[in-house]
């Protein structure tokens, strides 16, 4: 949905991407908020959450040593200290938005997967699932950035509807509430889906899948310039910046239509030139 060519670079060509401070900070904050719920409710305090940050950063470095490159030239450790301080402020802000002493999540970092009647498999990882005593389900997603302006809110909301669709098809339950917690700006956005919403999402996903399948078979992955291009790691290979993409690694067939039907919804693995699933994260 963002850029078909970027999808190709990430999923089919599997080009490496440099780690970024912002994305890594988001991973760190998510890990801290997940681990905080290991403690008894009364101990889920801001000081305890802050104290988790150094240990979780060490675990990230252990699992992904390449993240150390972010601060390789930071001899005095000033940038790292400032970066960790920014993570602390995001964690602290969460306590002004939710009270973890009153929450008992049913699931954290929950992997879900289901197959639609069409054969399309959907899978994703949900930050948190809350279940009320009455059985109502709330899906919660943490965002370490700022809440988007209303005209740009559909993208993050589509991600949440994707999760809701998976839960509905997997468990037969429409989540009562979808909740986006924006730690960067201190906003909480909610949406209460109904079956008609999720049916529309399913139709859109099927259309995206057809576009992915067509582009995979034809090799026709076109760039879609936006303001986000400035943060792309692959400008040197993008025609929009005077670059040439690498030779397409899969066999192709002539396109049957000139229509621009490119699109994507998260990573898709290709097997013998055929993508097999849509993932949301």
Please give a quick description of this structure:
By secondary structure, the chain is an alpha/beta fold. It has helices at 4-12, 21-36, 46-63, 78-97, 154-171, 195-218; strands spanning 107-115, 121-131, 137-143, 177-182, 187-191, 270-271, 274-275, 277-280.
Can you describe this structure?
The structure is a single chain. With 281 residues, the protein is of the alpha/beta class. Helices cover 37% and strands 16% of the residues. It is built from 6 helices and 8 strands. It has helices spanning 4-12, 21-36, 46-63, 78-97, 154-171, 195-218, and strands at residues 107-115, 121-131, 137-143, 177-182, 187-191, 270-271, 274-275, 277-280. Helix 2 crosses helix 3, helix 2 packs across helix 4 and helix 3 (46-63) crosses helix 4 (78-97). The model is unreliable at 257-276 (pLDDT under 50).
């Amino acid at each position: 949905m963002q850029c078909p060519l970027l999808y190709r670079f990430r999923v089919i060509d599997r080009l490496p991407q440099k780690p970024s401070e912002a994305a890594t900070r988001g991973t760190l904050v998510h890990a801290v908020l997940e681990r905080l719920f290991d403690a008894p409710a009364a101990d889920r305090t801001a000081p305890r959450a802050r104290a988790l940050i150094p240990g979780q950063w060490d675990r990230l470095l252990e699992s992904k040593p390449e993240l150390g490159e972010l601060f390789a030239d930071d001899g005095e450790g000033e940038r790292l200290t400032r970066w960790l301080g920014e993570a602390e402020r995001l964690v602290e802000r969460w306590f002004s938005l939710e009270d973890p002493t009153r929450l008992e999540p049913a699931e954290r970092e929950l992997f879900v997967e289901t197959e639609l009647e069409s054969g399309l498999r959907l899978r994703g990882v949900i930050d948190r699932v809350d279940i009320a005593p009455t059985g109502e389900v709330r899906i919660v997603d943490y965002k370490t950035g700022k809440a988007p302006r209303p005209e740009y809110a559909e993208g993050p909301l589509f991600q949440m509807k994707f999760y809701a669709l998976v839960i509905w098809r997997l468990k037969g339950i429409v989540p009562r509430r979808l909740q986006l917690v924006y730690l960067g700006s201190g906003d909480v956005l909610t949406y209460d889906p109904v079956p008609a919403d999720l049916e529309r999402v399913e139709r859109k996903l099927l259309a995206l899948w057809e576009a992915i399948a067509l582009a995979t078979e034809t090799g026709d992955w076109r760039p879609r310039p936006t303001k986000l291009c400035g943060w792309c790691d692959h400008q040197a290979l993008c025609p929009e910046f005077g670059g040439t993409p690498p030779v397409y690694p899969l066999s192709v067939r002539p396109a049957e239509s000139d229509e621009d039907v490119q699109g994507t919804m998260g990573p898709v693995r290709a097997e013998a030139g055929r993508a097999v699933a849509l993932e949301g994260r």
